[in-house]
Amino acid sequence: MEKTDEPCVTILFDNGEKAEFSKMYLIKHSAYFEAMFCGNFMESHSGNQITLKDINNKGFMSVIESLKHNRIVYDGLENLLNILETSQLLQFTDIIQKSIEVITEKYLFSVHAVPIFSLASTLGLQELYEKARVFILYNFKKLLVLNKNSFFELNEEDLQQLLKDNGLNIDNEIDIFDLIIEWCSKTNNYNIGYEIAVDCVDFNAMDMVQLNYSITKTNHFNLINTIRHYINYKRGHETSLNLLIKPPRCVPHVLCAIKNEEDGYAFIYRWDWVSLKFTKFLRLDPLPLYTTGYHVIVHVTFMLIEMDIFVLAGEIGYLRDTWNRSGWKYNLLSKQWKKLDGFVSSKRRHGVGHFCGNALYLIGGHSNHRCPNELIEKFLLHKSLEMDTLVRVESYRCNNFTKNVDRKYYICLNYKKQLVVITKDHNPVWYGMCPDKCNSENVKWESCSMNLKATIISAVVYLDYVYLLAYSARYMIALYCYHPTEQLCREIKRFTTIYNPYTTMCAFNINMAMVFGKNYLECHSMAHDTNTRYKTQFDSFHSNYFFSIPYY
């Protein structure tokens, strides 16, 4: 510390290190030291030396260095987390905020999420805790492979909070069971393994092989007996009365709709099951006012951090020949917008767009003077330290469809990694895109009739099938299941709602078909083959642009 005429204080740390600081400097930046030196604490009268218990010397010095440089000065994640912990305990408010910003930008949405979650829980940093929790739940399968040891550092409460969550993204409950057994072994907490396992593991979702395997992994008498109850139940020797039956795990999704407001702003609305209404979720801030025919495309994968909403294309003011050729993405975890560096699309209003893996295809729509845009543009996601954007890699001519490609007339799907375009005709046609072996600068479309005498409104891929909401010549709405391999379409359910293009809305939220009438909502779950009807009132809300997003 530089010598000044200001009163100084010597701070002693637990490791025996000590350093001298200006009292006024500490008071200026820390509410903790302000209370200590200006209040009635004994340290304000104890002379020029104090002891800081349970404060890391390196972390404290890093906080001071960060204050001097007006930015976080650190040499790795461990040091950065130490800075956050020290600044939170000693109430260096500015450093708390700055360190959280660095953590969020560089480390949170990665394999380091678990230790960040643990520290945020300990320090009571709710916003950071919640972001880390959601990221871990969604990316649990990947984190279990890439950084399994980080889970062994969690305390009992934090481990249970994660593993018992119904939104935990996991394929096999045996992975949860194994993790708990390993955690007990690593932390020497065998006595609480039973409580954690019963609270967190859905034994009913295991098969007989997994249940028998689980018995071999533990010596806990009560846990073995519990597992045996599930084995007997599956053999038909017991009723479910003796078992704890948990609801199946699933990543929660919410249905979203796009709507332009009269003031020129565009919004994403989300369906709220409490109020039974669409409520405003996100304003498309980067999009220029009065833009029409833009694309909002969701890219969600089970790779780390891939939960993005892309906003692209469109005409700024109808028929003004002013075009939005930029693109942006909104990350559902960080809740931040980012402009796509160097991204430029052709002049395109409406059309259809869809992701197949990391490839985005934009097809059809209109360009200058309402002429059809005949280009199929293919973009690839490019993410590196220098760039985070969509890069156009190919353009093809689109001469295969009888109508201008528009959301009014076509639906885009990703079926088993193949881009599919379906016509919204009374006798719909299935087009599957494939490479043209004779001309690498072009693509081929293999087409076939879907053998359906109804007009498709909405479609979704679920398991190995394509589910369709469509209306008949008499405007009766029904749910159909289409098997692309066999080219067979069968009706599953008829709805009571009569289709009206101005008042009716039809959409899928992953495995639920939803038909919105004027005064009620009809739902059919494809997963459970159940029907539900809700009385509601939509007022003037109407949209034809729907998609689903993960929503914890």
Q: How do the helices and strands line up, and which of them pair or pack?
A:
Blueprint: E1 8-13, E2 18-22, H1 23-29, H2 31-38, E3 49-52, H3 57-69, H4 77-89, H5 93-108, H6 113-123, H7 126-138, H8 140-146, H9 156-163, H10 173-187, H11 193-200, H12 208-216, H13 221-234, E4 253-260, E5 266-272, E6 277-283, E7 291-292, E8 295-300, E9 307-312, E10 315-316, E11 327-331, E12 336-339, E13 352-356, E14 359-363, E15 375-383, E16 388-397, E17 410-415, E18 418-423, E19 429-435, E20 443-449, E21 455-462, E22 465-471, E23 476-483, E24 488-498, E25 505-509, E26 512-516, E27 520-525, E28 530-535, E29 546-550
Parallel strand pairs: 1-3
Antiparallel strand pairs: 1-2, 4-5, 4-29, 5-6, 7-10, 8-9, 9-11, 11-12, 13-14, 14-15, 15-16, 17-18, 18-19, 19-20, 21-22, 22-23, 23-24, 25-26, 26-27, 27-28
Structural class: alpha+beta
Assign the CATH topology of the largest domain.
Neuraminidase
Uncertain spans, ≥5 residues at pLDDT below 50? none
The percent of residues in helical segments reads: 25-40%
Q: Based on CA inertia axes, which overall geometry fits? A: globular
Strand arrangement, largest sheet? 6-5-4-29
Average of the residue pLDDT scores: 90
Highest-level CATH class of the largest domain: Mainly Beta
Fraction of residues in β-strands: 25-35%
What is the overall number of helices? 13
Largest sheet: 4 strands, antiparallel
Alpha-carbon distance between the two ends:
47 Å
CATH architecture of the largest domain: 6 Propeller
Quick one: how many beta strands? Answer: 29
Number of domains: 4
Radius of gyration: 29 Å
The CATH superfamily of the largest domain bears the name: Kelch-type beta propeller
